[in-house]
Design a protein that fits this description.
This is Thiamine phosphate synthase/TenI domain-containing protein. The chain has about 525 residues and is α/β, with parallel strands linked by helices. About 45% of the residues lie in helices and about 15% in strands. It has 21 helices and 19 strands.
């Protein structure tokens, strides 16, 4: 069986001073790499063959040696296989020339290319480009991100085409876990044992390393941590009203009796900054509103808390800040809440939302019906964009949020007259709230803040020096009654229940507003209207 876990692609152009291709590959293999591709585009045939024979001596079984493009060099050097691009020799011709047990890898960038290659008999697929890379010039539309890779994987699963996938393009220790988790198959929601880890191909992360043995060891350790996370996922339990009610009350008590003051870092729109800051204070948390690129890493690492991203009013600097802060939050296990405000209103908003979702693994995505429908590509669902508000009703809202949660591997909230929440396995319906909320500018953004405040205690005390924090968040999302799910339900319900209470006290005078929503979160204890659990 071929181990694609960590797939090294060579590049002499990336070697540091004093290093050779052979010495670097030797150290990577010594550290545990089990498959190496010789990729030297500019070498003449004679030198390429010499390199291939040298690497063949280093890559002894069970280590596999693959040659990029050149079937002839692969055969003469005794390599184990060849990797072909879309513009290289057709797979059928390569199979005709090569040995019967040769490995044939194919580069793919789209679902159509992947399906065609799998059906043609490829041994594995090299899927990408995942991230921007310095090893070659890649057009923007060819950079598909983890979401693009996952779309390819899910379609292959749907068609029953079982084939190993190796993700390539810009992968390093800072985005490795984001890549692996972001490419996780939907199968984990139906069969915990069905998921097989995807392979990752790296170039400069090893070839440019001053110590390739240590660089390889670090990458392999992270891959093993991800595999362990997959193996230890528990089967989802049945959600019962009694247990859920008890868990919600326990979490509510923990939140309001917290000894710390979590920092809620907002990168949000200018319209709601003051209201969201005051709401954060009312919850006993500390707000900060900053999109200053130079302080993103420091703010994320400052203390326990949460990162709230809001697409309401954005510019290029704010988008960069969201991605930078989000990536640092992923590394240390800090929850990230994303509100894709008005994402269906313009092509630019959809483009930037896609960029953010590729760069950052979200913990919770919260949007109205039009926004969630746009993200989930349910364009024919009946909901249309109306500025940054929602207009129309989607069909099958429970299936919409479930599909979106599985697509993004996070908790998804769809707000409206009825609020819908899904963790990808189950769907929850919340029927609290008053109609006046839809007439208050920023009420939806404040809901994102409320979720962020409640979520801020889920990872309290986590080791901020670790780069495996994303797996802690992922485990919590996949668990039955995990803190993230409870926090999301409470974050929404607290505002809605408070609005109901205030409306009753004001005898229907419709005085619900940001200032009156801040003081009554404890009412949620006895007034959550949670139903429609499935």
């Amino acid at each position: 069986m071929i181990d694609y876990s960590l797939y090294l692609v060579t590049s002499s152009d990336n070697l540091p001073p004093g290093a050779t291709l052979e010495s670097t590959v030797r150290e990577a293999v010594r550290a545990g790499v089990k498959i190496v591709q010789l990729r030297e585009k500019n070498l003449p045939t004679k030198l390429l063959l010499e390199r291939a024979r040298a690497l063949r001596e280093i890559c002894q079984p069970p280590v596999k040696l693959i040659i990029n493009d050149r079937v002839d060099v692969a055969i003469v050097s005794g390599a184990d296989g060849v990797h072909l691009g879309q513009d290289d020799m057709p797979l059928a011709k390569a199979q005709e020339i090569g040995c019967g047990d040769s490995i044939f890898g194919i580069s793919v960038n789209t679902v159509e290319e992947a399906v065609a290659a799998a059906r043609a008999g490829a041994t594995y697929l090299g899927v990408g480009t995942c991230w921007p890379t310095g090893t070659k010039s890649i057009p923007d539309h060819k950079i598909i991100g983890p979401r693009g890779v996952k779309a390819i994987r899910d379609e292959l699963d749907r068609l029953g085409l079982s084939i190993p996938l190796v993700v390539i393009g810009g992968i390093n220790s800072s985005n490795l876990l984001r890549t692996l988790y972001g490419c996780t198959s939907n199968q984990i929601y139906t069969d915990r044992n069905a998921e097989s880890p995807i392979g990752v191909a790296v170039v400069s992360a090893i070839m440019s390393a001053p110590n390739p043995f240590l660089a390889t060891s670090k990458l392999l350790q992270m891959i093993q941590e991800f595999k362990y996370w997959l193996r230890t996922l528990e089967e989802p339990l049945a959600h019962t009203d009694v247990v859920l009610d008890m868990e919600l009350k326990v979490y509510m008590t923990q939140f309001f009796e917290k000894s710390s003051t979590p920092l809620i870092h907002h990168i949000t729109n200018t319209v709601v900054q003051n209201d969201c800051a005051n709401l954060t204070l009312a919850y006993g948390c500390s707000p900060i509103m900053s999109s200053n690129l130079s302080e993103m890493e420091d703010l994320v690492k400052l203390k326990d808390g949460c990162l709230v991203l809001n697409l309401g009013t954005f510019d290029n600097n704010q988008i960069r800040a969201m991605k930078l802060a989000g990536m640092h939050a992923n590394l240390i296990g800090k929850p990230v809440i994303f509100d894709p405000v008005g994402v269906g209103a313009s092509l630019e908003r959809r483009k930037q939302a896609n960029n953010i979702l590729n760069a950052v693994q979200m913990t919770v995505i919260k949007g109205n019906q039009a926004e969630i429908a746009a993200l989930a590509r349910f364009h024919s669902s009946g909901a249309t964009s109306c500025g940054v508000d929602s207009n129309g009703e989607v069909e099958d809202p429970d299936e919409l949020v479930r599909k979106m949660a599985r697509q993004e591997l996070c908790i998804v909230v769809m707000t409206g007259k009825t609020d819908w929440i899904s963790d990808g396995s189950c769907v929850f319906r919340l029927d609290n709230g008053v109609s006046q909320l839809s007439n208050i500018t920023g009420s939806g953004c404040m809901t994102g803040t409320s979720i962020g405040c409640f979520t801020s205690i889920t990872q309290s005390g986590y080791d901020k020096d670790s780069h495996s924090g994303l797996l802690l968040i992922a485990k919590d999302i996949q668990e039955t009654f995990g803190g993230t799910l409870l926090a999301t339900i409470l974050g929404i319900s607290t505002l809605n229940v408070a609005a109901e209470q205030i409306t009753r006290e004001e005898k229907g005078k419709s005085k619900v507003g940001p200032s009156t929503l801040e003081g009554l979160p404890e009412l949620v204890h006895n007034n959550i209207n949670l139903s429609g659990v499935s």
